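Hi all, posting the design record for the shared folder.

TITLE: backbone redesign
STEP: 1 of 1
STRUCTURE INPUT:
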């Protein structure tokens, strides 16, 4: 029996790589080092799709919560906080963390340092963040220098609530 024309050409093509099949193609894109792919539910209630977004390893955001638009996805690092205790009920918190809104355009292509001072948030790139850190170190040195000029604290039986809170912090406990 003679070979068909198709089978003759198929034999000749056996050395040429074939197009990958659906079974050999990964449905998820590759991610660069320091990132992982996370599923994010996106859409309005009743019409939610799952998108996979690259998420930096420093991000602690729970991406399992639904967002309406993919542009709403942001990445936030673990915050570091400083809260200054006062005699008034209001406190002035200072909180810093890494923050990134990848969909906000060119000015936000990279993560920034987010500084939250009593609900006002400013973001800084590397150079500005390092300059701010230098200013904070200088400020802390001024606070220490001034504190060292103060008279000794009152005896333990007449210490203030703030003194007790400071003692607890220094000893690793909580106020």
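Okay, here is what came back for every position:
SEQUENCE:
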């Amino acid at each position: 029996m003679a070979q068909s024309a198709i089978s003759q050409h198929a034999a000749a093509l056996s050395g040429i790589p074939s197009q990958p099949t659906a079974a050999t193609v990964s449905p998820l894109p590759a991610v660069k080092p320091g990132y992982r792919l996370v599923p994010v539910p996106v859409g309005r209630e009743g019409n939610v799709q799952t998108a996979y977004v690259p998420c930096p390893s420093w991000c602690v955001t729970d991406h399992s919560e639904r967002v309406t638009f993919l542009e709403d996805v942001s990445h936030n690092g673990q915050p570091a906080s400083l809260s200054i205790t006062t005699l008034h009920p209001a406190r002035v918190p200072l909180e810093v963390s890494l923050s990134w809104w990848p969909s906000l355009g060119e000015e936000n292509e990279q993560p920034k340092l987010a500084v939250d001072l009593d609900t006002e948030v400013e973001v800084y790139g590397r150079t500005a963040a390092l300059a701010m850190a230098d200013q904070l170190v200088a400020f802390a040195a001024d606070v220490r220098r001034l504190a060292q000029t103060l008279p000794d604290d009152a005896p333990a039986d007449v210490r203030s609530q703030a003194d007790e809170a400071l003692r607890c912090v220094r000893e690793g406990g909580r106020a």
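COMMENT: The longest strand covers residues 35-44.
Let me know if anyone wants the other runs.
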